[in-house]
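Students often ask why inverse folding is considered easier than folding. One informal answer: many sequences map to the same fold, so there is more than one right answer. In these notes we will look at a single instance of the problem. The structure comes first.
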């Protein structure tokens, strides 16, 4: 009777686990933009541990991030604004010519124009200072975003290395021992040396 109760309880756990799997599949389908009618199957085995021989180029990954590229675009825009402000200090000299002809007569009018601004006391210092301040702020923000991105990627890299070490430990040390224990439990149960509970515990540990 106790074994039947445990079996019924295990069947309930199986139904709950199946429901959780369906919910996870629906959530993943929503993230992937796929129809929930398409069944998502789980791979039976884990992929082999093939870590890269060398770590990724964090500098390249930092420059490729969207937030860093957006900060770099703001720096470029601030630099363009500064160039425009500095261009105001240069005087543009305009030279032009025109020829007016009146049909039916021999009158022609030739006009030559020379235009140059006279700026002696104002050199757009305010516009240049404002653009320079904006450029410095954009550069400071870019360095801050780059630093935060680098720290985040370094933290992720350390987590990756720690997880790989843990996975190797499971694959090379814990899993072989669990297999030995499970094989010994199977043999001992077949000989009547251990109860069913110990066999199920060894199977659960291996799983």
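Output (designed amino acids):
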């Amino acid at each position: 009777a106790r074994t039947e109760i445990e079996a019924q309880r295990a069947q309930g756990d199986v139904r709950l686990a199946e429901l959780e799997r369906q919910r996870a599949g629906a959530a993943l389908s929503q993230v992937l933009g796929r129809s929930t009618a398409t069944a998502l199957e789980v791979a039976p085995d884990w992929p082999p541990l093939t870590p890269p021989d060398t770590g990724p180029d964090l500098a390249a990954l930092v420059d490729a991030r969207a937030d860093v590229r957006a900060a770099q675009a703001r720096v470029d825009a601030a630099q363009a604004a500064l160039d425009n402000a500095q261009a105001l200090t240069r005087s543009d000299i305009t030279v032009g010519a025109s020829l007016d002809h009146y049909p039916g007569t021999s009158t022609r009018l030739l006009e030559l124009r020379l235009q140059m601004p006279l700026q002696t006391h104002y050199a757009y210092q305010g516009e240049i200072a404002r653009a320079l301040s904006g450029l410095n702020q954009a550069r400071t923000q870019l360095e801050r975003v780059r630093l935060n991105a680098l720290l985040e990627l370094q933290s992720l890299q350390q987590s990756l290395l720690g997880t790989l070490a843990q996975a190797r430990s499971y694959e090379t040390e814990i899993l072989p021992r669990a297999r030995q224990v499970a094989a010994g439990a199977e043999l001992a149960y077949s000989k009547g040396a251990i109860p069913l509970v110990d066999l199920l515990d060894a199977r659960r540990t291996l799983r």
